[in-house]
Amino acid sequence: MHEEWEYVGFWARTVAAIIDLILQVIICAPLTMAVYGTWTSPDGRYFQGPFDVVINAVLPAVAVIAFWLWKGATPGKLAMSARVVDADTGHPMTTGQAVLRYVSYIVSALPLFVGFFWAGLDRRKQAWHDKIAGTVVIRPAGNERVRFPSEPAFKQTEPRF
């Protein structure tokens, strides 16, 4: 890599996630309303029916994974000049890594979202889903140069999960 990179921290990632969530609501709520007449379940069920699952679970998953593979980032991360790459090489993540990273959001979320907050504590600013998928979130910048294990002079001082 010829450009200097830095790891993207918790707050920038949070802003990116909020942007992505707003876009998801703007797209999915009208579709859900068109099918069911409301965008929330009136009787407290998580999903109103099969089209709700497709619109609000499958469609966002496909969109996120497609953006990761196409642009290396979701619109929110693009707004932060960030991208998700392989943690060892800095190359674009593979399809397998993208799917694993998305599914691993569940692991990051289940214990009170601790896996997401972990990005604020980790040396490489990896959330649990990044550690599981072998990815890091980077952006062009300045203070701390990113070094990938495949580069000479890389010293790993932290155990990998």
From TrEMBL:
TM segment ranges: 15-39, 51-70, 102-121
Domain of life: Bacteria
Gene Ontology cellular component annotations, sorted alphabetically: plasma membrane
Keyword Transmembrane helix carried by entry: yes
Location relative to the cell: Cell membrane
Alphabetized UniProt keyword annotations: Cell membrane, Membrane, Transmembrane, Transmembrane helix
RDD domain residues: 7-134
InterPro entries linked: Pra-immunoreactive (IPR051791), RDD (IPR010432)
Membrane topology: Multi-pass membrane protein
Pfam families, per database record: RDD
Name the record gives this protein: RDD family protein
